Task: structure prediction
Amino acid sequence: MMPHKFRPVTALLLFTGLNAILVSTITPVYDSVCFHPYWERRRKRRRLEREADLARESDSTQMSLQVKS
Result:
């Protein structure tokens, strides 16, 4: 026999309430981490590098096509 009373409804309500609290507090934490200025600068730098690589590729492709002509 168990030494204490098992209350499944109380456990379920506690579990649901705890999850509701955690879900409501995760949004501001997520936003502050994901939209931190470091990540914004990193995204911008990577986008510029990607655009520069694409421009370099298209220039080299155009040059190779001109050489073949």
Notes: The radius of gyration is 28 Å. The first helix runs from residue 8 to 34. The chain is about 85% helix and 0% strand. The mean pLDDT is 85.
